[in-house]
Write a structure and sequence with these properties.
binds magnesium ion; 10 helices; 298 residues; alpha/beta; 18% strand; ten-stranded mixed sheet; binds threonylcarbamoyladenylate
């Protein structure tokens, strides 16, 4: 059944409980899932992605009660954020319970937890009855997938099943908030705005300085073409095949299509993709973060 793509949640759940690796739709991006309690299955995720084994994974659970089982402590900030944004595009980092395998945490004393907002993902997690470790379902450093077809093209023959839940509604990854420190720190901007996070926990240290989330500083989310983010009105001179996109008009709509645009630029053999940036607020902050990483090192 290797590489099969379909909408059969029962088959996806069976593959996972047998220790398989399954691509799963979420509202942010597709994830590459395995039973979080099964170190052998989790190791297969790293092998398929080509991801360094000290990069921790997010555990996806059905609700806040399930999340708390994976946590040694559940700070007030975690409870406030979970209450307001779960299910949804927010990941909460807390000290982990004793049983959580090192393969999930990368040997850290914390675990990242998320209740995804996609009905198919929630249905699957409930059927499996346990947490699913899942990074984005792309090869390490490459563009995240927002359709089942993206996953098939990248990893098709290596996963046991690709569960098709349609195109992702948000289109870029969850916001990560570290609630194991005080005040909580935003480690990655994403689907929930940093303004809304700050509004909920009142005191928050914005993302700054070296990131505490491993794997987020290097070039990432990268297509083969050169990505050139520009401020509105800025002019650039370029040779080669150039395409220009505008992310400033409707940032939420752009976010939904962003990774598709990056993939299409490569399919169309574009050399340089120029993107006019949105304002650095709301989802615009996450778009700017991803595009600056897509542009890094080129
Ligand atoms: O929207 C998302 O978050 C998607 C979907 C599939 O849920 N997942 C995702 O996973 O983006 P991934 O592995 O591509 O990115 C997760 C980030 C990594 O940069 C990792 O370092 C960070 O979360 N992370 C995971 N556990 C952590 C922890 N205990 N402390 C700090 N950072 C952590
Ligand atoms: Mg990723």
């Amino acid at each position: 059944m290797s590489g099969r793509i379909g909408t059969d949640v029962v088959e996806a759940a069976r593959a996972l409980t047998e220790g398989g690796v399954v691509a799963v739709p979420t509202e942010t991006v597709y994830g590459l899932a395995a039973l979080a309690r099964d170190p052998l299955a989790v190791r297969r995720i790293y092998a398929i992605k080509g991801r360094p084994s000290d990069h921790p994974l997010i555990v996806h659970v059905a609700d806040e009660t399930a999340a708390r089982e994976w946590a040694r402590e559940w700070p007030v900030s975690a409870a406030s954020l979970a209450g307001r944004f779960w299910p949804g595009p927010l990941t909460i980092v807390v000290p982990h319970a004793d049983f959580v395998p090192d393969s999930v945490t990368g040997g850290r004393d914390t675990v990242a937890l998320r209740v995804p907002g996609h009905p198919v993902a929630l249905d699957l997690i409930r059927r499996v009855g346990d947490g699913l470790a899942a990074p984005s379902a792309n090869r390490f450093g490459r563009v995240s997938p927002t359709t089942a077809e993206h996953v098939r093209l990248d990893l098709g023959t290596e996963v046991d099943y690709i569960l098709d839940g349609g195109p992702c509604e948000v289109g870029l990854e969850s916001t990560i908030v570290d609630c194991s420190v005080h005040p909580p720190q935003v480690l990655r901007p994403g689907g929930v705005s940093v303004e809304d996070v700050m509004d909920t926990v009142l005191e928050v240290a914005p993302a700054s300085g070296p990131s505490r989330a491993p794997g987020m500083m290097e070039s990432h989310y990268a297509p083969r073409c050169r990505v050139v983010p520009i401020e509105p009105g800025q002019h650039v001179v370029n040779g080669g095949r150039t395409r220009r996109l505008d992310a400033s008009g409707d940032p939420a709509a752009f976010a939904r299509e962003m990774y598709g645009h990056l993939r299409r630029a490569d399919e169309d053999s574009i050399d340089t993709l120029i993107v006019e940036l949105p304002e650095p607020r709301g989802i615009g902050l996450a778009i700017r973060d991803r595009l600056s990483k897509a542009a890094a090192g080129r």
